[in-house]
Amino acid sequence: MDSSDDSGRAERAVALAERLLRDAQRGISRSERRRQARLARIVADPQARELVQQLTDEVLRLERPRRAAERFARLVTEHGVPRSLGPLDRRLLAVGARLATRLPAVVMPLATRRIIAETRGLVIPAEDPALAGHVTARRAAGVDLNLNLLGEAILSDDEAAERVRRLVEVIRRPDVNYLSVKISAICALLDVYAYDHSLGRIRQALETVFDAAAAASPTVFVNLDMEEYRRPAPHRSTRSRRCSTCREFAGFHAGIVLQAYLPDSHDVFDHLAGWAQARAPTGEAAPIKIRIVKGANLAMERVDAEQHGWVQAPYATKAEVDASYKRLLGSVLVSSCRRVGAGGCRQPQPVRHRLGAGRCETSSRHPGAARWTIEMLEGMVPAQARATLAAAGVVAAVLHRSCAPRR
Fold first, then answer.
1. Count H helices, E strands: the chain?
2. What are the pLDDT digits (tens) for 171-183?
3. What's the gap between Cα 238 and its chain centre?
């Protein structure tokens, strides 16, 4: 491949990215623009981001108003009232936190309604007909979905068992074909110092999920999501050991996420690519899918590093992360991996070999990747998803779904 070919691809990538961005800007509605600006303020504010995440992940799961009120008041007290929220929301949050424990039956329905309104399109209720209706509508629009159950913070083995049961329940739905799983959501109180023991617990939980996914018709694709820095090794070890030793999983399609903001991800990719090639010398085993994302836990990693006096695990600057992201994509494209995912919440900057936006799924002409999935969170930037749908013909989205409530 000469330099002129490279230059031509780069120019076409830049032109396509510019066109998609222009189309997205022209197609955005006023309500989407306001919502996007409000969401951007929250995402840019660590205090607001953490508060909204915990309100969604914890308060919405509590059925009893008094318990929900106690947790709501405690979270607002711990995090304060973020200035990135609008004046009305700040006032309602402060007043609600003071009155919640006194008038839980009055305050909590109002607070719950407001949280749901702010996360509408990003978080979908687990119950039908809301979930079934959303999936049907999005599929009719040409959008495929990757379900991700919220409620990752679990405190006991009973909660972990309940989460596994809920995952199996979702897998058995006829309208689900893709599911994301985090090990912290299916195994409680993992200890990296008891590595082999923790690995056994993870493997046992994943066996149940993989068995259900393999038995589904059609087979449900399971993706292992990454979390904080201490979890990638158990993820990849469990995945490779389980699928290497069990013949019944030779044809099972599954995937794993690599975070570009971690320097270690490049070595991890080399390990996974070598393992995938070694397990299928005859070509009979199903290929694994490797999904490349930039990384979503930077704020937590920084806090963890500062508390312990460590150098933070992720790269320190956006330029380093972007370069790592493109380097990982380049490594994937010249490898033998046949399924690749490129994740992000916005349209990525041009990549020499392949470009796209949102989460679209289409065939790639590159011989190293027979199937591409370019991913984005459902509801994050819908105008960009629509522009991608128009250009690529099919789009898929990562859909967060509220999980079974805590009582």
1. 14, 10
2. 999 888 888 888 8
3. 19
Please give the average per-residue pLDDT across 85-97, as a whole number: 89
Do 366 and 6 touch, CB atoms closer than 8 A?
no
CA-based nearest residue to 390, from 4, 27, 8: 27
Q: Please state, in angstroms and rounded to a whole number, the distance separating the CA atoms of residues 293 and 286.
A: 22
Distances (CA, A) of 95 to 69, 88, 109, 112, 238: 12, 11, 14, 15, 47
Residues in the chain: 407
In terms of phi and psi (left: phi > 0; alpha: psi -120 to 50; beta: otherwise), the region of 80 is: left
SS3 267: helix
Q: What angle do CA 262, 301, 85 make, to 5 degrees?
A: 120
Q: What is the pTM of this model?
A: 0.72
Query: Does residue 269 contact residue 258 with C-beta atoms inside 8 Å?
Result: yes
Q: Side chain identity at 335, as an amino acid letter?
A: S
**What do you get for the CA distance between the two ends of the chain, in Å?**
61
